[in-house]
Amino acid sequence: MTETLLEVKHLKKYYEISRGLFKPKLIVKAVDDVSFSIKKGETFALVGESGCGKSTTGRTLLRLTDATSGEVLYKGEDIMSLSYGEMRSLRKEMQMVFQDPYASLNPKMTIKQILMEPLRVHKKYSQEERLKKIIQILEIVGLSEAHLDRHPNEFSGGQRQRIGIARAVILNPDFIVADEPVSALDVSVQSQVINLMLELQKEFGLTYLFISHDLSVVEHMTDRVAVMYLGKIVELAETEELFKNPKHPYTQALISAVPASHPKEVKNRIVLTGDVPNPTNPPSGCTFHTRCPFAMEKCKSVAPTLTEVADGHVTSCHLYINNKEETSNAIIHSKV
Amino acid sequence: MIGGNTVSSEILLEIKDLGIQFKTGEGTVQPIRGVNFSLKKGETLGVVGESGSGKSVTSLAVMGLLPEKKSKIVSGSIHFNNNDITNLSEKQYRKLRGNEMSMIFQEPMTSLNPVFTIGELLSEPLKQHKKMSRKERKETIISVLKQVGIPRAEEIINEYPHQLSGGMRQRVMISLALLCEPKLLICDEPTTALDVTIQAQILELMKHIKKEKNMSLLFITHDLGVVAEMCDRVVVMYAGEIVEIAEINELFDNPLHPYTKGLIDSLPTNNARKSTLYSIKGQVPRPDEIGTGCAFANRCPHAFEKCLEQSPPTFLKGEHLSKCWLQESELQGVIR
Fold it and tell me: Which residues pair with B101 in a beta bridge?
């Protein structure tokens, strides 16, 4: 369990926006110096609001978009330096499940063709074995042989997501990036798909990078969580620790914003004011200071760095960099 | 937490035995069958159900927005403010819509016309329903925008919807609905497209406004957490029928219909971490797949012969309604 499968070091992905010939280009720092590592067999979650860079991070790990700089070590090998062909063959070990099951399956292909494609591309098994393998995987995800010649439009959202998962799992990968796999699904179907993912993980020893904005799902099925805000990781901890003891004001607000599960549950809600700032022009210093209830003078000018507050629990916030006395003063002061 | 504290016993909206038929290429389907409920003045009534359960169609029927050529109200009636509005002409409906009842839609991106400025959009209901001078209109618009927490309202009225963020657009939608101070506000998944932190802001805002203006809210959502926070009473819909109506605490503490129980039990927060989530088997049937028996019978863990043969009537237990054969035998016995 402690073996590291994937290590991300100082990953950056900048997008340039052209504003015409003579104006300087705008730079959007979608992912800005992100580092983390994923252990073998664990489920690592990336959470944050839309536009925080969590999906971009997931895609750059598989090199579906190329990173601006940084290293991604998969089983000790830097995949950023691989050639196109090498990367392509490595993808049999690294697969992705997409958010929208309506957009991620080719409507002109039958289920058989959709599931055959990865086997064909990676030249696995003989022709008959492939078909056997496809039927086997369909049964694992809760569909059957009868569905082989149907097209995606004949399936419901939940079934499509099962097909998307089957397509990712059929090559026996070690690592799966799941980008919001359940957020497009209905409540009763959502729990079915989560169960399927948990089962598959046990059965095949999969490692997941689970990208989601739904904190109750994240709390249920992940081992460690990284919280992102405007392209940076602001807090990273084990799931239970993070939900019990969130440190960064953003994480605290995010967790408190989750709707109650019972009408009698009283929530001490921190309602953040304002929206996520424009990523082309992020605030100076700590990027969260414009919405932070505890913002100090220092936060406006100096960007905090990730510091360890407990074993395996890091956060980037000035509240935890100073000594304890100053910290409590800051909180009391800002509450007045 | 219950939103309103001034629920009167006066009924504002009453739907009796509503049935709606749609024409399709192959004949007719009836996605809404025998829907009965009422909404009191000052009350927030939640309508919960998955996609395809008919919650949006019901709300469109109340607003008189069903597609004219394709659909027909085949049975029942809708009473609003003691008037029968089932068969109102388009002209008569126009006097109601935006004036006495208004609606907030799910997608703030698509429900605002992109070619008009916010000011132009917001002046439309006022031109329709109120006799006001240009100056008065502008003042009203700015004051409503300020009420919903939009900063620099004087400038925003000259901007276009695409210049605003999702949360801001939803605030504009809310102000649009509030302009004429309606008695009834229908919210169709108002926060589904928003991030959790923004969702928390919007929910707080709606609670506040409802209290201030003493409106009735019909709150349509699939998110039980949002229901738990916002509503006084809840209607649970499944496949075009109402399966359960109860007071909010009663519904969460003592759900009677197996579908409601299933929905509550499948919330990740109600399951032990990493365990297999409780899930309802199968999926919502299409309107043309519903047979003679109970619509939920094929997914129900308690289904017996009678369920497959005969559609259950609505059983009443105090104020708690449920449409399940189990209640028949258990009227004198224990429940759960």
Answer: B97, B184
Please tell me the distance from the alpha carbon of residue B100 to that of residue B81, in angstroms, as a whole number.
Answer: 10
Q: How many CA atoms lie within 13 A of A43 on its CB side?
A: 24
DSSP summary character for residue A19: -
Q: Is B239's Cβ below 8 Å from some Cβ in A?
A: no
Neighbours of B140 (CB within 10 A): 17
CA B82 to CA B75: how far, in whole Å? 18
Of A90, A283, B200, give the one whose Cα is nearest residue A292: A283
Q: What whole-number distance in Å separates Cα of residue A74 and Cα of residue B40?
A: 60
Distance CA A224, CA B196 (A): 20
Nearest residue on chain B to A155, judged by CA atoms?
B283
* For B202, nearest residue in chain A (alpha carbons): A271
Query: Are A188 and B50 a contacting pair at CB < 8 A?
Result: yes
B279 touches chain A (CB under 8 A): yes
Q: Do residues A170 and A119 make contact, with C-beta atoms less than 8 angstroms apart? A: yes
Long-range pairs for B3-7: beta carbons < 8 A, 24 or more residues apart: B3/B44, B3/B207, B3/B210, B3/B211, B3/B217, B3/B229, B3/B230, B3/B231, B3/B232, B4/B42, B4/B43, B4/B44, B4/B210, B4/B211, B4/B232, B5/B211, B6/B42, B6/B211, B6/B214, B7/B40, B7/B41, B7/B42, B7/B43, B7/B232
Written as six digits, the tokens of B4 are 């309103």
A246 contact residues in B (CB cutoff 8 A): none
What is the C-alpha to C-alpha distance for residues B327 and A238, in angstroms, rounded to an integer? 45
pLDDT of residue A329: 45
A76 Cβ contact list (under 8 Å, min separation 6): none
Checking if the pLDDT of A57 tops 90, the result is yes
Residue B330 CA: distances (Å) to CA of A161, B249, B298: 39, 21, 21
ipTM attached to this prediction: 0.81
Measured between alpha carbons, how far is residue B152 from residues B85, B124, B141 in Å?
A: 40, 21, 12
Alpha-carbon radius of gyration of chain A: 22
Q: How far is B84 from chain A (nearest CA, A)?
A: 34
Of residues A215 and B288, the one with the higher pLDDT is A215
Output the pLDDT for position B2: 46
Name the average pLDDT for chain A: 88
Cβ–Cβ < 8 Å for A315, A234 = yes
State the pLDDT at residue A245.
Answer: 92
Structure tokens of B270?
Answer: 């109600």
* Tokens at A32, concatenated: 């800005």
For chain A, what's the residue count? Answer: 336
Query: For A321-331, what is each residue's pLDDT tens digit?
Result: 764 444 444 44
Q: How many helices (H) and strands (E) does chain A have?
A: 11, 12
- Closest Cα in chain A, distance from residue B224 (Å): 7
Tens of pLDDT, residues A164-210: 999 999 999 999 999 989 887 887 788 889 999 999 999 999 999 99
B222 CB within 8 Å of a chain A CB: yes
Q: By the 8 A CB rule, do A40 and A49 touch?
A: no
* Of A235, A201, A231, A211, the residue nearest A59 (C-alpha): A211
Round to whole Å and give the CA distance between B46 and B242: 12
- Asked if pLDDT for residue A234 goes beyond 90, the answer is yes
Q: Tell me the two tokens of residue A191.
A: 């729990």
Instruction: Flag residues of chain B having pLDDT under 70.
Output: 1-6, 329-336
